[in-house]
């Protein structure tokens, strides 16, 4: 599962990235600090079934702490986009190819209003403008891929090739499925004959494709220094107020054993006798923010992207339905994220192609009932797959 961070320069993408991954990307208070992409691993939280079962898990592909399972996802941080990027402005939009494999995007907006769309310092910018410009650039990126060599492509379609086949082949590199192409063609209902399509028609289709295949969560970042008006405006468009800066500070303070904090929490604990005055003051600012907003918002963005937008559920495959262990006696070793509606057979294929190919039956380890290949899995299920050799 891959989450891409997008936004104008200087909005805080790399700060967000550093706050949620163990990677260290360069951060700077000027545009285009990032040029080459950064890739790292972050985690989304789910309740760990070990807690209810009274077991101590031995996590393998994930982490488990205090009854919470932290399931890994990949996060990609890229260069900033500016208006006109599709015409080559700023860094252009070629680097968006770094996001081809992203399943969902987080748009990091600068809610402080202190930088313009190019990422330069200004007094009063309207963060709402970032949203339409960024979507427009994303749509141009997809549309240009659709419309490339159109007259030749359209001739092939006129000659009998199905448009959905042709487009899904063209968009496969963007991790856009055939089903998504079919749905988008239906939703965008372009009535013009294919021969006559131009960039505007491609843009209409690109918009739907983006909504279907690269959904966006908006992070109203720098909320720690945003005006009440900006925050209100951004909340109206369902943005999540975030302070990547605070989340990064909490992560670093926790790593240095100055505080106890787990990502997404509404509080942290500290022993002020270990802290210097400036640290106490900084932490006071952060705890006020947490009190007002419930969290730094950063973890919430990741989870809204992965668990809500992509609607993924967590499944725990095991080999021993009595002890909930794998072949090495590890208790509840793995947690997999699967689309809601996935079946026992889908899980088998996720574990291994061979196991999918030789699937016989599965066991729901909570109820100990045998389930068939088409059985729809529920969030938190612990499943044993029985496969032939
Ligand atoms: N107050 C505040 N400042 C932030 C926050 N997040 C980032 N910043 C600051 O904003 C500036 C830009 O941060 P970066 O993370 O480098 O921004 P970016 O979007 O990666 O920028 P480019 O790589 O240039 O596109 C830095 O000075 C950060 O310290 C935040 O939540 N609050
Ligand atoms: Mg950056």
TrEMBL record:
Keyword entries, A-Z: Nucleotide-binding
A GO term from the CC aspect: cytoplasm
One Pfam match: YGR210-like_G4
Boundaries of every OBG-type G domain copy: 1-262
Superkingdom in the source lineage: Archaea
Segments forming domain TGS: 311-387
CDD domains: TGS_MJ1332_like (cd01669), Ygr210 (cd01899)
A molecular function GO annotation: GTP binding
Record flagged with keyword Methyltransferase: no
Keyword Hydrolase part of the UniProt annotation: no
Matching InterPro entries: Beta-grasp_dom_sf (IPR012675), G_OBG (IPR031167), GTP-bd (IPR006073), P-loop_NTPase (IPR027417), TGS (IPR004095), TGS-like (IPR012676), YGR210-like_G4 (IPR013646)
PANTHER family given in the database record: OBG GTPASE FAMILY (PTHR23305), OBG-TYPE G DOMAIN-CONTAINING PROTEIN (PTHR23305:SF1)
UniProt protein name: Redox-regulated ATPase YchF
């Amino acid at each position: 599962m891959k989450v891409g961070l997008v936004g104008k320069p200087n909005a805080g993408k790399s700060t967000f990235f550093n706050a949620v991954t163990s990677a260290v990307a360069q951060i700077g208070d000027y545009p285009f600090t990032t040029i080459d992409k950064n890739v790292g691993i972050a985690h989304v939280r789910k309740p760990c079934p070990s807690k209810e079962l009274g077991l101590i898990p031995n996590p393998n592909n994930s982490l488990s702490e205090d009854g919470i399972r932290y399931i890994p996802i990949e996060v990609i941080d890229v260069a900033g986009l500016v208006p006109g990027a599709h015409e080559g402005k700023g860094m252009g939009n070629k680097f968006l190819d770094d996001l081809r494999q992203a399943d969902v995007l987080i748009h990091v907006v600068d809610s402080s209003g202190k930088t313009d769309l190019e990422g330069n310092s200004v007094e009063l910018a309207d963060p709402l403008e970032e949203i339409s410009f960024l979507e427009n650039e994303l749509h141009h990126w997809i549309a240009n891929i659709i419309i490339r060599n159109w007259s030749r492509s359209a001739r092939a379609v006129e000659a009998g090739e199905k448009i959905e086949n042709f487009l899904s082949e063209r968009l496969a590199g963007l991790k856009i499925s055939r089903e998504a192409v079919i749905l988008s063609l239906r939703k965008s209902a372009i009535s013009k004959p294919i021969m006559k399509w131009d960039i505007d028609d491609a843009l209409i289709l690109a918009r739907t494709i983006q909504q279907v295949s690269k959904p966006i969560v908006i992070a109203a970042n720098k909320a720690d220094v945003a005006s009440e008006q900006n925050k209100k405006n951004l909340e109206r468009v369902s943005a999540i107020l975030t302070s990547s800066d605070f989340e990064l500070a909490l992560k670093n303070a926790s790593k240095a054993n100055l505080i106890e904090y787990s990502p997404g929490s509404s509080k942290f604990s500290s022993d002020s006798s270990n802290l210097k005055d400036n640290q106490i003051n900084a932490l006071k600012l952060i705890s006020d923010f947490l009190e007002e907003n419930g969290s730094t918002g950063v973890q919430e963005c990741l989870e809204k992207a992965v668990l809500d937008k992509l609607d993924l559920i967590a499944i725990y495959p095991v080999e021993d339905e009595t002890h909930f262990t794998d072949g090495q006696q590890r208790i509840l070793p793995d947690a997999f994220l699967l689309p809601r509606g996935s079946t026992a057979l889908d899980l088998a294929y996720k574990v291994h192609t061979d196991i999918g190919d030789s699937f016989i039956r599965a066991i729901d380890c909570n109820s100990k009932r045998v389930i068939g290949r088409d059985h729809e899995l529920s969030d938190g299920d612990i499943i044993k797959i029985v496969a032939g050799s």
